[in-house]
Amino acid sequence: VACNSVKPTGGKYKESENSTDYTEDMIINKKKLERKAHTLPYMKFRTQINSFMREILLDWLVSVHDRYDLSPSTLHLAVYIADKYCACIDVKGNDYQLVVLAAFHVASKYEDKYSAITVEQCVTLAAGSYNKSDILRMESMILFTIGFRISVPTVWTFLGLIVPHINISCHSAHFAFYLSECVMIQHDFLQHRPSILASACIAQAANLLDGSTLNVYDFPGYTMDDLEHHMAAMESITSFLQQKNSALNSVGIKYGKPKSWDSVCKLV
């Protein structure tokens, strides 16, 4: 039975662009856009920040996002904005959390217009490290640096488009959402485009929980040309799950809440 909604039982998970008859065309268009927007791994070119610092900060961001009950599109967009800026600028270590906070504020205003996190809340989250002026100044720097391009497809964009149109259980769909946030935190996964990561998360979840073998040709808008990249992402996710470090587990805690993610909580 297909999972016809991308909403879990709790949280402000708004409907994605999944209710039209043009899903395949939309996915094809989003795939074209992602090629221009895609951020490749960049940490080896940075002198004051590294992938472990990124992992710690994004793990913290997941817990903050969960606390304020914002849409998943906000979380994915915030990570994209922060990565895009850090790929352009050699960020100082002391400014890294400021970048993530400012990116989160921008993303929440764009995706959660009526319940966006406020600058004052960002200041509180910074625990005295930054003030209101710091956050607003960093927002301006980020937006100017990335050319104000924040209307971009993320992994969540493709999950929301694909899930309602394939034969996958809600149980597996929710596990795919969990996987998408796990891999989002890992810097190495930036090598994979969002559309490929989304297809790999869905296929991995379906394989593990439904016992079905899904591949790119099962998804609207995907072609056999995507297969090699899809399989590489699948292998990366498999390796990640086998070696997963439980020291940073905000995603597991979030998806382990029975009232919100009853179909996933027993697995994580």
Task: Give a topology summary.
Blueprint: H1 23-37, H2 51-67, H3 72-88, H4 96-111, H5 119-125, H6 132-145, H7 155-162, H8 170-185, H9 194-210, H10 227-243, H11 250-255
Helix pairs in contact: 2-3, 2-4, 3-4, 4-6, 7-9, 8-9, 9-10
Pfam families: Cyclin_C, Cyclin_N
Domain Cyclin-like: 59-144, 157-236
Domain Cyclin C-terminal: 153-264
Oligomer: single chain
Broad CATH class of the largest domain: Mainly Alpha
Q: Class by helix and strand content?
A: mainly alpha
**What's the gyration radius in Å?**
18 Å
- Tally of contiguous helical segments: 11
- The mean pLDDT is 87
CATH topology of the largest domain: Cyclin A, domain 1
Main beta-sheet strand count, sense and barrel state:
none
Could you state the CATH homologous superfamily of the largest domain? Cyclin-like
Q: Any low-confidence stretches, pLDDT <50, length ≥5?
A: 7-19
GO molecular function: cyclin-dependent protein serine/threonine kinase regulator activity
Protein name: Cyclin N-terminal domain-containing protein
Family: Belongs to the cyclin family.
Keywords: Cell cycle, Cell division, Cyclin
